[in-house]
Amino acid sequence: MSETIETRQVRDALRMAQSVLDSLETGPIGQLVGESGTGKTRAGKYLVEHLGAVRVCCAQGISNKVLAAKIHAAFGGESAPGSANTLIGRLESLVAGRLLVVDEANHLRWQQLELLRYLADEAGMGLILVGTDLMDRPFKDGRTATFLAQLASRIGAKRVRFEPLSALEEVAGYMLQPHFGKVDKATAAAFHKQAKGYWRDAAELAAACRRVLAAQNLERLSPVVVEAASNWMAPARLAA
Questions:
Q1: Lesser CB count within 10 Å: N end or C end of the chain?
Q2: Where would I find the ORC1/DEAH AAA+ ATPase domain in this sequence (predicted)?
Q3: CATH number of 178's domain
Q4: Can you tell me the distance from the alpha carbon of 20 to that of 17, in angstroms, rounded to the nearest whole number?
Q5: Do the beta carbons of residue 206 and residue 172 sit within 8 Å?
Q6: Which residues does residue 30 pair with via DSSP β-bridges, in sequence order?
């Protein structure tokens, strides 16, 4: 399931990102928030494809300099030595009017968040922060909330929450039909019971279903195939 499917949440993310680009002078920052596996990263990549955005992904403990260097390279800047401040200075001319998607933003500390806010405010860069609810911790911590007050005000209501799919119609239409064709309600229910509406689990389960279909020389997905596929998957996932 590598192709991004235009769910309601993805469409909401696209509209929100467009509003960010339309407000570069006043509040060019938005957020995609939700649990792991709910499709936030897929939506971020969708913005790259449809809005010409640039994407970077953060890791635990990333420094200001490494973040600035990743952004500089992502925007096509030539590799050159320099401090974080030097790289930020170079970035100002590269990012104006562009949209940056920062995935795994829950790994960022307030210093990196302020660096991004500076580029949005002073260089006219649109910014989408993507991450889990842990991303909100620095905004609520009394020790750092004051430093992030400007960033919080720029985000405002430009926030889209990603949740696991719950309706069987959505599971059948978004997670199953594009890959297996039309399925009956019982099959959709069996698939939903295992994947629980999470895109990551759905991708793993769909791959396992395809293996079962191929091994048994079957053409149609059924509850029995879904159950057999779930038994092939990692016990840790099934116990989650």
A1: C
A2: 27-132
A3: 1.10.8
A4: 5
A5: no
A6: 128
Residues 213, 113 share a domain: no
Q: Which of 182, 38, 240 is nearest to 230 (CA)?
A: 240
Look at residue 1 and tell me if it is in a domain. Answer: no
The structure tokens 């562009």 sit at 98
Q: 156 and 96, same structural domain? A: yes
CA nearest neighbour of 14 among 4, 3, 1: 4
The closest alpha carbon to 13, from 45, 61, 36, belongs to 45
Do residues 157 and 194 share a domain?
Answer: no
Number of domains in the chain: 2
Full domain range(s) for residue 123: 8-162
Q: Which DSSP string corresponds to 175-206?
A: IIHHHH----HHHHHHHHHHHTT-HHHHHHHH
pLDDT of the chain along its 240 residues, tens only? 456 788 999 999 999 999 999 988 877 999 999 999 999 999 999 999 999 999 999 999 999 999 999 999 999 988 767 788 888 888 988 999 999 999 999 999 999 999 999 999 999 999 999 999 999 999 999 889 998 999 999 999 999 999 999 999 999 999 999 889 999 999 999 999 999 999 999 999 999 999 999 999 999 999 999 999 999 875 545 444
Give one DSSP letter per residue of 34-96, joined into a string.
E-TTSSHHHHHHHHHHHH--EEEE--TT--HHHHHHHHHHHTTPPP----HHHHHHHHTTTST
Residue (of 117, 110, 192) closest to 150 by Cα position: 117
Q: Are residues 154 and 220 in the same domain?
A: no
Flag whether 2 is in a domain: no
